[in-house]
Structures are given as structure tokens and as C-alpha cells.
From TrEMBL, chain A:
Domain AB hydrolase-1: from-to ranges: 37-254
GO cellular component, one term: membrane
Protein name: Alpha/beta hydrolase
SUPFAM superfamilies, sorted: alpha/beta-Hydrolases
Keywords: Hydrolase
Alphabetized GO MF terms: hydrolase activity
InterPro entries in UniProt: AB_hydrolase_1, AB_hydrolase_fold, AB_hydrolase_sf
Organism of provenance: Actinoplanes cyaneus
Gene3D superfamilies membership: alpha/beta hydrolase
Secreted listed as a keyword: no
From TrEMBL, chain B:
Source organism of this protein record: Actinoplanes cyaneus
Top-rank taxon, per record: Bacteria
Domain Metallo-beta-lactamase: start-end pairs: 11-203
Signal sequence, renumbered to the chain: none
Name this polypeptide is given: Metallo-beta-lactamase domain-containing protein
Amino acid sequence: MKITVPAGSLRPARTTTVALGDVEVTLDDHDRTRPFLVLHGGGGVASVRGFANLLAERTHARVIVPTHPGFGGTARPAGPATTRDLAATYIALLDRLELADVTVIGNSFGGWVAAEMALLGSPRLSGAVIVDGIGIEVEGHQMTSVRGLAPAELAKLSWHDPAKAPRPPAVGGSGPSPDLAALASYAGPAMSDPTLLERLRGLDLPVHVIWGESDGIVTPEYGKAYAAAIPMSVFTVLPGSGHLPQLETPEELLGAITDLGN
Amino acid sequence: MKTSLTVTRIAHACQLIEIGDLRIVTDPWFSESATYHQGEPLAYDVASLGRVDALVISHEHYDHCNLDALVAGGFDLATPVFGPGTVTALAASKGFTRLHTIEAWESATLGELTVTATPGQHGVHEVTFVIKAHGRAVFFGGDSLRVPELDEIPARLGPLDLAILPVNGLCIRPAGLAQVVMDAEQAAALTAALNPAVALPHHYAFHSGQLGDRIITRGDQDPRHYTDALARLAPHVTTRIVLPGTPVTVP
């Protein structure tokens, strides 16, 4: 039977009471938007901004894109903070925003954060999409170290067609950028957690694992291991795409996310 | 004069059935999880439920047998529970004390109330029910598949005032899209066989979350498919699509 109801049309209205000084207003909130949380990788928020906009425009969704604290000139957490701490921070963010039925989408390091969020078991999160994520350790399919690589070499590993890679802005000064310093502090020197793969085996949330077929940083085999560890997962390979499908093939990535199951 | 019969959906398959002054709650579900959403507002929470004379529970799945939420909400554990052995064993473990185990075609009576289990089929052991009191009779279909034996109900148990049926034809994606709940067409065909005065669809707004609907479950969320099919197959049966919290009085 064909399901003819538009997505989300039978969602409940939430009834809340808002106190405004001496007056209390009771309201029904008919919110048909489906919330997404989009998490960037080491490339910073700029690497997902365009895709987040596309997702919001096409699906009429609410798309929330945080900048990981410490990236893009924002303040780093006061104390030491791991990837797991960052995941807990974002669950607290969903609580603060009172969002429900959230799907978290994360690319690269953001995919690792998405996996850690899923493992926290919050009822606010109803699914995760891991796009060329890092964080697990897979025998025989190690993540390619990107430390000290020239931009051209990094582009070759990250893009199916390196000619499409944007030219990195000329940055003054020397030493690692604040973004890389923040990434290193969350992800640790190995950029992975040896316990993650095993912990994923107990995950009871639906997860869509999507991989660029030409990803030279974490290969599709690595992606397959990511998906294989998660009981309720679906694995999709995107042809003609590398480590950053949201930049290289945004339409195809959107299609993979929204067409699943049709 | 007939005893009054009113049904109010609390959400999903959780219904408050009132026959005279008897208040019966079916398949309780009062919480939400990451991949189980009612998809419609809850008409009552445990605290606002008021007096309940009996719980009638078809099977032990979370969205039909949310005993933890009842216990947490301070529900009276001395409330009689009617259900198959799988349910009453679980209820006993949660501290419920008055348990009536009934399997298909077995009945239990408590004062004016008689609950008869009727056949059912689902991903786990499930029964459906005919609930009778004060001369009124209600079929409660839980979230069963359509099984042929259900067609025998009028012959074995007499005419029905009301039938409540699931209609979403839920399929489980990881199980090769195995169907575990009757769909709108099957529910309408069963309604024609049961021939009640009034038939109400339930168990359709449920969803597994925006990603879960694509990975875990597939269900028809449109109850109009049922009312349309019923208009074809049994046009004399009165049906209505009702929102949670709206009482329907059966004449």
C-alpha cells in the first residue's frame, strides 16, 4: 500500500504553558519540522554549512549546526574535554532546546561525535548518520595520518576529484591552527578510541553509515566495519565522492539520507 | 435501557473503555523512547487516569505493556490484570497482584466484567480480546495480524457493539519487511466478518523516529485507508477517525 501522508503530518501538537510575568499563556505548538543536528569534522563548520542549508531548504527541516568549542575562534572548554565529553555537551544542548526525534549527522570527526552521542542513550535522539566518520580502530584498515600533510596532499586523499577542492586560504603565522589544536585535544593523538568499535555493538539506535567510495583517509572497508559493528545500521557507498561528500557530492548525500527505504 | 458504552483513545492502542461505571484500560503506554513515538498526543498521563477497574493487555511489547511507567506513576498495583501468560508473568514481576491469565478462547470473570481472550498473531505471542459487561461487547484487536479464527467471534461469543482494530500493517525492515500487524484492507475485511455496530481504527500514528522509520519499521500512518476500505467492504458499519482524548459513545 502506498503511504500518501506527507512526512510528519500526523505528529502531535505539544501543549505547553508559558508564564509571561503575571500572565500564563497556554498554547498548542503544531511543529511539523524534523530536527537535524549537523556536526562538522576537522575542516570546521564551513565544511558543512552549505550542506546544512541544502538539507533545511529541501526537507523543510530544522537544521542545527554547532561549532565545536575551540573551532573557528570560539572558546575552548575550560578543562580537558574528550570526544565523549563533547557528545555529552551536545545531548545537553538538545535538552536545552527541548528537541525530540533528532537525527544527528556527522562527517569525519563529527561522525565520531555522532556515534558517541548515540551511545549516550538519550530519548531525544532517534537516529544517527555517520558520513565518512573516524574514531574506530579497524585491523588492516587504519586511518591515514594527515599530520604534516601539505594542502595538495590532503586534497588528494580527501577528494575523489582533487581538482574540485577549494584552495585553502593563505594563513599567516606558523604552528598548528586553533582548529587543529582543538581537534587534537578532543580526539587525542591517535584520533581514535580503541573501545569504540566494541561499544557500538550494544547500540540500539538506527544508524545510516554513508561513505565516499574514494575516501583516502578512512577507506570504504573501514566504513563497512563501522556499519557492521552497529546492529541496526544500513551502509551506503557514494560513488564519485571522497572524505567530504557534503562538499563534493551534496545532492547525492542528501539523496542517500532522504531516500533510504523508499 | 442499554448500559452506556464509551471509548476514549489515550494514544496508540491504549484505550479507556467505559461500560456503565466500569473503567477498563487496554495496552498501557505512557512514556516515549528514542525509537518508539506515539505520534499523537497522550490524552492522559498515569496520574490523571483516575480509577481503573481492570487492565487488559494483549502482549508484552513496550508500546503495549508499559508497566514500568504505571509503577513509576504510582498506579494501584492491586488493579486486576487480564492477559496471556507472557503478560501476567511480567506483571507479577513488576508487583501486580491480581492476575488473570487467559489464552485464546479462555475467559475470566470479575464481577460484572468478563474478558475472553481471542486468537492473535504478532512478532511475539499475542491475544486479542472480547470484553463484555452489562450486556455490551467490545472486540479489542491490539496490534495483531488478521487470523482466520477471529471470524468465528460472532458465532462463538455473540454480537459486538464495538470493534477496535489496528490498521497500520506494520512491517519490520531488518526481518525482510515481515508484516506483524494487519493492514487497513485486512482490518476492514475482519470488521465485515465481526459486524459490530461501530468500528474504530487505532495503532497508526506510531512512528520509530525519522531515521527509524527508514531502517526499523514501515507502517501506514493514514487511518483513512481503513475507513475507505470499510466503506467498500461493510458500508453499514459506522466508523470514525478520532483523536486521542475524544470520547466516542456507542449507541
